[in-house]
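[audit] Reproducing an earlier prediction to check determinism. Same input, same settings, fresh worker. If the tokens differ from the archived copy the diff job will pick it up downstream; this log only records the rerun itself.
[audit] input (102 residues):
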Amino acid sequence: MLITIFVTGCFSILPTIGLASVDEIDMLILESFPVQINVIARGNLPDPCTEISEVLQERGGDAFFITIKTYRSPGFCIQVLAPFEEIIPLKVYGLPAGTYTV
């Protein structure tokens, strides 16, 4: 007797590393000296088992580039979107006043 089990989409044998899907961002300028600016990123993770593992921030000229990395452990997980909100403090200390792009 041979029993075959097919696993589709809801089971991962290896950990999964990816990027978060960001749907919107807001900027929050805090009333402080020196100025502090937070980016609030909102979006959806592919399932509730996926978590934000790392937030990277780079600046090139007058532009900030933010990357939100995700990690999912191997195993079964329900396939439903999981909303997230991540508050990211921008590294603006010491920058000259001006217009910057995020």
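[audit] rerun output stored. Observation attached for the diff report: The first strand starts at residue 11 and ends at 12.
[audit] end
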